[in-house]
């Protein structure tokens, strides 16, 4: 039978990249870990690591076994958490990766609520874009990834990842309040000759805008790009152009700007993603529900904004 402790070391080396980092995380010595991995190779009769310069890296066989190791470690961690939850009423520590507008709004709201309730949940947070959050989830660097997709831009989900619906938010057309086209809904085709403000091309939000305009029969004439939606709104206020903005990205609406619905309805769907191997973790389930409740309270279905 394969020693689970050695599997944990192998999986950690695959994730962290160096023996020193593994030793620090597991509170062991680098030579001790190297000896354990060598022993695992002898037990299995296959090379799991190789030297590349001064670094110890995994062979293809090592990477395959490390992937199995991550699943087993997840299962063991889940068992430990459930026992702890039963014995002490605690649910453990979780690493969350959430894109910025989610982190700023409903993730912060849910975290505030959990702290106020004295919940036995400890969180750490990073704010990568969805692609990087999903990559971190599959490699074991995070436990829960908050990601989005658009109604006109679906997202590929890796194998071994389970999704939980959090909320669906509208995508608004931001334009000046004195724009003659201002109405409850505007056909994007009427904006074919207008200048546009968009996110940067590396973001899914950019593709959403390009596709929405393409379906309306034109390619947007882009005059400004920013990954900061508040910058986009201020540029709209300045009369630079128009923009499509997801609801949660609107932190403060300039008084010169109104949000109207595109006649071609657009929405952004938000999900919490976890590794399938952690399904049933009560702490993750509690976090997902806390995010869902907080997000429902944050997303507006009309253009009224809080003061």
From TrEMBL:
Annotated HTH lysR-type domain ranges read 2-59
Q: Which Pfam families match?
A: HTH_1, LysR_substrate
Family annotation (InterPro entries): LysR_HTH_N, LysR_subst-bd, WH-like_DNA-bd_sf, WH_DNA-bd_sf
Assigned keywords, A-Z: DNA-binding, Transcription, Transcription regulation
**Which family, according to the similarity comment?**
Belongs to the LysR transcriptional regulatory family.
Q: What is this protein called?
A: LysR family transcriptional regulator
UniProt source species: Microbacterium pumilum
Question: Lineage in the entry?
Answer: Bacteria, Bacillati, Actinomycetota, Actinomycetes, Micrococcales
